[in-house]
Amino acid sequence: MSRSQRMLAGTALLTAAALLFPVSGRPAFPGANGPIAFVSDRDGNAEIYSVDPAGGDPHRLTANLVSDIDPAVSPDGAKVAFTRGLDIWVMNADGSGQAAITGVEGPDSAPAWSPDGTRLVFVSNRNVPGGATTGPELWVMNADGSGVRQLTQTAPGSSLAPAWSPAGDRIAFHSNLDAGAPMSFALGSGPS
Questions:
Q1: pTM score, two decimals?
Q2: Are 37 and 29 in contact (CB under 8 A)?
Q3: Which residue has better confidence, 59 or 191?
Q4: What range defines the domain where residue 70 resides?
């Protein structure tokens, strides 16, 4: 399947998901010196907006035909990571400098910044040799998209909704692998 066919299939999947799961408008917490980022479909498509924590009129950061969701403001407030289509993107807090930092490896979503702003954890269903996929698992990468590595291996379950600990040494996440048991990942040691 060509990249354009995968993008069309992904767009169809995202459109179907948007119909089944309407945009929640879940905001991203501001960095120490930054805006609150949120998703709204007020202009007919899921786009990312920001607003000053003190209030005021929202500022539209993205404008395109593909849904932009999952905004995460960097700890210093200078950048916003987000999901566009099936990839993780990063932009400046004013909406400029939008660039994809993941690509055709698989559908990626739900980025979350490390407390020091140098890394992102995200959810991915990446391709593996033989044509299979990893299932929704957690991956981590440098803020520029380099150094990607898989953190969890919860198949046949899934790993979702990652959140860094304040010290940046653990990642909490949702998993349906072991119902009722909270899970976290200590960086450098494996799931615990």
A1: 0.76
A2: no
A3: 59
A4: 22-79
